[in-house]
Amino acid sequence: MPRKESKPDPSKQLMIKTKACQRLIRESEYYEMEALQNEQKLQQMKDENRDPYDVKKFQEVLSESYMMIPDSVCRRDKAVADLNDFLAALEKEGEISEELNASEWMSEAKKILRESGLAGAHSEEETGSEVVETSVVDLKEGEAF
Fold first, then answer.
1. Around Cβ 30, how many Cβ atoms within 10 Å?
2. Which residues contact 32 (CB under 8 A, 6 or more apart)?
3. Which of 81, 111, 119, 144 is the most buried (most CB within 10 A)?
């Protein structure tokens, strides 16, 4: 007997997407840190006049570390964009309840989006922007403001 199609729980989806973003952010930071550490170790090996074969092999290790950075950054950016799209869709559909909005995962998601620079689409209180009223009292008929 096939299962009945049901709409996924937004709070569960938010938790999954937020955790994925957190993991990918940590992973990309780790790869960048590893590359820096390997650069230092390679320089130390050169300074100590280590065996050229060892230096060459460690340069290969360093190049592999560099190859991992763009891939991890791309996956991180894709996950963050997916989280941003998910929150925008929830907001558009009006599915953000008070409980979901006050949840720990929503605050984590907003923090991730703020830190990544994608916090523009959700609410005025998140971005700090405010609506400014323009006074039309002093305008004359047909004058543009």
1. 12
2. 69
3. 119
Give the global pTM.
0.71
The structure tokens listed for 94 are: 């009006």
110-114 contacts: CB < 8 A, separation 24 or more? 112/18, 112/21, 112/22, 112/25, 112/80, 112/83, 113/80, 113/83, 113/84, 113/87
139's tokens: 């305008």
pLDDT digits (tens, 9 = 90+) for 43-79: 999 999 999 999 999 999 999 999 999 999 999 999 9
124-108-91 Cα angle (round to 5):
45
d(CA 103, CA 108): 9
